[in-house]
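assembly run, all chains below
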Amino acid sequence: MTLGGWIFMILSWSCIIVLIVFSYSKILSSESNKDK
Amino acid sequence: MKSREKWATRIGIVLAMSANAVGLGNFLRFPVQCAGNGGGAFMIPYFIAFVFLGIPLMWIEWGIGRFGGKYGHGTTPGMFHYLWKHPMAKYLGAIGIVIPFALVLYYTYIVSWTLGYSVFSFTGKYFAVESYEGMVHFLSAYQGKEINQHFNGLGTAYLFFFITLGLNVWILSRGISKGIELLAKISVPLIILFGIVLVIRVCMIGTPDPAYPDRNVMNGFGFIWNPDFSILTDSKVWLAATGQIFFTLSVGFGAIQTYASYLTKKDDVVLSGLGTSSTNAFAEVVLGGSIAIPVTVAFFGLQQTQEIAASGSFDLGFFAMPLIFQKFPLGQLFGTLWFFLLFLAGLTSSVAMAQPLMAFLQEEFKMKREKAALMIGVLILFLVQPIILFLKYGFLNEMDFWIGTLGLVVFAVIEVVLFFWVFGAKNAWKELLQGADIKVPRFFYLIMKYITPFYLMILLAVWFVQDGISVLSMKGVPEENYPYIWFARFLLTGILISMVLLVRIAWQKKHPTREDMAR
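ok done. output:
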C-alpha cells in the first residue's frame, strides 16, 4: 500500500470513529440524564 | 387517539435504525465500488455525498417519521396527508409502502442464501468445490438454475427461505420493543464483533502463498485505498459514490419514517440520525472495506480480484469467499461467521422493510399485530414464487431495477420536495430541531432545501438515461425472457394498484386535517 493509501485509510477511519464516539457518548449521556 | 407502540430505550432506536441501514451492501457492495472507482480517492466524493445527501436525507426521514407519529400514522400515506393538504398526498405516500414491500419479497430470498451458505460453511458442504467455475455451478444449482451433484432441485433453497421468512414473521409479531428493538440490541453488537474477528483474521494472513509474493493482504488494502486522483474528473465516480451513500443508508423506502414514528414528539432526531449514519459508515468503511477485497487479493492476486470485482458484489461474496475459506486454517468456522454476519445484517434490514406494511395494516385497518405479521408472511410466501422459480429469466433483476434502484430515488425526491418545499422549509427546519440534542449548523438548512433535492434529481436523471431507457426497452434481454420481464412489471404494477386501493379504502373513514388535530 502506498503512503497515499495509508493516509486515506487512516483519515477515513479516524473521521468515522470520531463521529461515532461523539454521537454515542452524547446519546448515552442523554439517556443516563433521563434515567436520573 | 389510540396509544401507539414505543421504543423502550434511546439506544434501542438508534441500534434498530443502524441495523436497518447495515445490510449486505456494506460488506459486499462498498468494497467493490471503492476498489473500482479510484480507491482512496473514491472517499472524497463519498464523504461529500455523505454530508450533502446522506445525513440530510437521514434527518429528513427521521423528521417526517416523528411528525407522522404525532398524528398516529406510522406510514407515509398518513404522513404525507398531514404534510400536504391535497387528496393526492396519501396516494403518493402509498409508494412508501409499495417499495419496502416489493423489496422485502426478493431481499428475504437473498438473505436466506446467506443463511444457507452459513450452514454449508459449518458442515463443509462446498469444501470439495475447488474452482471458481465450480462455485458458480454450486450457487446455480442451489438457486434451481441447473441440476448437478450438489443440489437436485429447489428443496434446500426453500428450506432456508422458510426459516428466514419464519424468523421475520416471528420478530414482526413480537412488536417494536420486544421484537425489532431486541433483535437490534443482539444483532448489531454481534455484527460488529464478527466483523472485527474477521478483520483481525484477514490482517494476520500476510502472504498465504510464498510462491506469489505480490499476493498479500497489504496489496489488498492498497487495492482499496491507494488513491488515483485522475479518476476524480470522471463523473461516473461521483455518481457511484452518491449511489453508494444512497443505498447504504437505506433511505428512500419508507422504513426509517416508520421506525421514527414510534418516537415521542420530544425525542431527538438529529443526534440519533447522526449516530445511525456513523454506525453504518463504521460497518461499511472500517469493517466492510477490510474483509472481502483484501483477502481476495491475498489469495487470487490483483488481476483476478479486479475481474471478480468487475463482475459484481455477488461474485465476491458467493464465489470468491467460499473458495478462500477452504484455504484458511479453521476455514469452516470463519466461513460460518462471514455468512452468518451477512445473514444478521440482512435479517435486520428485511424486518425493517416489512414494518411499514405492518404499521399500515395495524393502524389503518385495526388489525392485530400477530394477524398482520402472519398476513405479511403469507403474502410474501405467495408473491415470492415467481422470483424463486423465474430467477434465471431475469425476474429478480427486473424488479430490483425498478424498485431497488429507480424507485428509491423517485421516492426520496418526492419526500424531500414535500417536506422542504410543500410543507415549507421553515416548518421542516423547526420540526427537525424540536428536541434536538445537538445544534445543527445553519448551512444544513440550505443544503436540505437546495442541494439535497438537486443531488437526487441529477442521480435520477442520469440513472434513467444511463440504465432506465435500456431496461425499459429490454436492450440485451434474450427474447425467451420477455414474458418473464413483463410478468415482473405486471406484478409490480399490481402491487402498486392494490396499495393505492387499500389507501383509498382506509381513507373512506374520516382522517382529520392538521388544523382539526390542533383544535
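The first helix of chain B runs from residue 10 to 21.

Chain B is about 75% helix and 0% strand.

not gonna interpret more than that til we talk
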